[in-house]
């Protein structure tokens, strides 16, 4: 295991301890950001703690996080942090939320960790080291499915009401064409693609901190990750993850 992946897993341990302590807390402080999304003291506290650890462990690396920003040039080595992905779920007591941690090198994710302590699950990947999940004390390597026909494919998404705009009808037509559709939402859709439980996951609007670790997780599991326009990587403003066999078929229907 690379030293960078080891550090990322240690950061996830640190975040888990902080976020689980605040999950369900009666005194949880919730504020509204300028974009009208919620932020809690747990989001801010976790990101501050991770930044402090990185400042000690990797002082020469840049850091970019959802709550406190950072350089957006994405050159050299840079850690990308989302302390709580799924803050609305976190606030309401829904356990589907996680901490997202990625290391990118010149914009390309090379390490990714998705830690969902309320679900008892953690996924991680590093370039050349494969993708893994831990659950109930067991760790296993994961890979995408071998489904090659849309009519046999399972698709998961997050939201049908915003972001699709002129693609909405195309997306709805795609959902009619696949075998099964569910809205597992957010990070979980992509992690299930990596596990082979779902074959397609897509979102029309995302930020880089939402998907950077998911990119490397999908690729190391044998799948393909791009924007819905087909741009590889996590910088296209949208996300499409598939088992690879279905990627071009889906793109032809959405572009």
UniProtKB/TrEMBL annotation:
Gene Ontology biological process terms, A to Z: inositol metabolic process; L-histidine biosynthetic process; signal transduction
GO MF annotations, alphabetized: histidinol-phosphatase activity; inositol monophosphate 1-phosphatase activity; metal ion binding
Catalytic activity: L-histidinol phosphate + H2O = L-histidinol + phosphate
Pfam families linked to this entry: Inositol_P
Gene3D superfamilies: 3.40.190.80, Fructose-1,6-Bisphosphatase, subunit A, domain 1 (3.30.540.10)
Residues noted as binding Mg(2+) in the record, renumbered to the chain: 66, 82, 84-85, 210
Keywords: Amino-acid biosynthesis, Histidine biosynthesis, Hydrolase, Magnesium, Metal-binding
Documented EC number(s): 3.1.3.15
Top-level taxon of the source organism: Bacteria
Pathway(s): Amino-acid biosynthesis; L-histidine biosynthesis; L-histidine from 5-phospho-alpha-D-ribose 1-diphosphate: step 8/9
Entry cofactors: Mg(2+)
Role according to the record: Catalyzes the dephosphorylation of histidinol-phosphate to histidinol, the direct precursor of histidine.
Family of the protein in this entry: Belongs to the inositol monophosphatase superfamily.
PANTHER family: INOSITOL MONOPHOSPHATASE, INOSITOL-1-MONOPHOSPHATASE-RELATED
NCBIfam families in the cross-refs: his_9_HisN
Protein known as: Histidinol-phosphatase
């Amino acid at each position: 295991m690379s030293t960078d992946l080891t550090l990322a897993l240690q950061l996830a341990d640190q975040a888990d301890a902080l976020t689980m302590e605040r999950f369900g807390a009666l005194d949880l402080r919730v504020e509204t950001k300028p974009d009208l999304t919620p932020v809690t003291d747990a989001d801010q506290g976790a990101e501050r703690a991770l930044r402090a650890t990185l400042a000690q462990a990797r002082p020469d690396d840049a850091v970019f996080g959802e709550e406190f920003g950072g350089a957006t040039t994405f050159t050299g080595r840079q850690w990308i942090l989302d302390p709580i992905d799924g803050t609305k779920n976190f606030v309401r007591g829904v356990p589907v939320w996680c901490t997202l941690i990625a290391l990118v090198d010149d914009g390309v994710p090379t390490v990714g960790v998705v830690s969902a302590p309320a679900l008892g699950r953690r996924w991680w990947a590093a370039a050349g080291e494969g993708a893994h999940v831990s659950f109930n004390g067991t760790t296993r390597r994961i890979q995408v499915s071998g489904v090659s026909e849309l009519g046999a494919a399972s698709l998961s998404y997050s939201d049908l009401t915003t972001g699709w705009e002129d693609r909405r009808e195309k997306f709805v037509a795609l959902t009619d064409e696949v075998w099964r559709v569910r809205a597992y939402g957010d990070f979980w859709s992509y992690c299930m693609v990596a596990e082979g439980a779902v074959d397609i996951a897509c979102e029309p609007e995302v930020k880089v901190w939402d998907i950077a670790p998911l990119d490397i997780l999908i690729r190391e599991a044998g799948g393909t990750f791009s924007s819905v326009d087909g741009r590889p990587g996590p910088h296209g403003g949208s996300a499409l993850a598939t088992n690879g066999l279905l990627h071009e078929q889906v793109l032809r229907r959405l572009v």
